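Help needed: design a sequence for this.
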């Protein structure tokens, strides 16, 4: 698996690739305890928690994936990008450049928005809990959403609310300790939003 990772991720830095190669050598020598210490490097640490169940098609894209398999062009399209007439390779290249630029920009800006939206769901969860049983708050939000135009099943809505409230709680705690919700803009980009 380590060898596949090293070859499958071309954007790895030289140091990360070297760490993977060292890890491979250590594993082949059956020195698993030393190999675990190699995974403590910041770029590879998240690999420690990966299990066989984690590898596979993400729930997030589960419904879209069959459409992408049927028509590759569907995968390449975005709601925010209007595809114009392409007279030449240059115009196609320019369109793809703009598309990639906007996707990258949105990926970064949506990360910040996501922090505040999870904080919103945490605050709303506390509000509808009436300060008592916090489980009741989740149930109330799920009930509101299942009676709305949201097209997800109740189980999916419940799972999303729980995840978002949990993330919102982490951000709330951070905001309280920092004294301002503005700290959510100041977190280093190297820190994952799942920490």
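Sure. Designed sequence:
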């Amino acid at each position: 698996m380590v060898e596949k990772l090293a070859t499958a991720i071309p954007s790895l830095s030289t140091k990360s690739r070297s760490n993977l190669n060292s890890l491979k050598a250590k594993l082949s020598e059956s020195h698993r305890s030393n190999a675990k210490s190699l995974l403590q490097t910041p770029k590879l640490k998240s690999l420690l928690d990966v299990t066989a169940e984690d590898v596979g098609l993400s729930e997030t894209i589960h419904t879209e994936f069959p459409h992408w398999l049927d028509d590759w062009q569907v995968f390449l399209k975005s709601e925010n990008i209007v595809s114009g007439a392409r007279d030449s390779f240059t115009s196609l290249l320019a369109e793809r450049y703009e598309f990639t630029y906007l996707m990258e920009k949105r990926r970064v800006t949506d990360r910040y928005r996501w922090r505040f939206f999870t904080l919103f769901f945490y605050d709303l969860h506390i509000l509808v809990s009436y300060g008592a049983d916090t489980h009741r708050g989740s149930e109330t939000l799920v009930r509101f959403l299942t009676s709305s135009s949201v097209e997800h099943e109740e189980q999916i809505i419940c799972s999303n609310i729980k995840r978002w409230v949990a993330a919102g709680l982490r951000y709330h705690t951070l905001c309280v300790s920092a004294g301002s919700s503005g700290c959510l803009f100041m977190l280093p980009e190297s820190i994952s939003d799942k920490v």
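DSSP finds nine helices and no strands in the chain.
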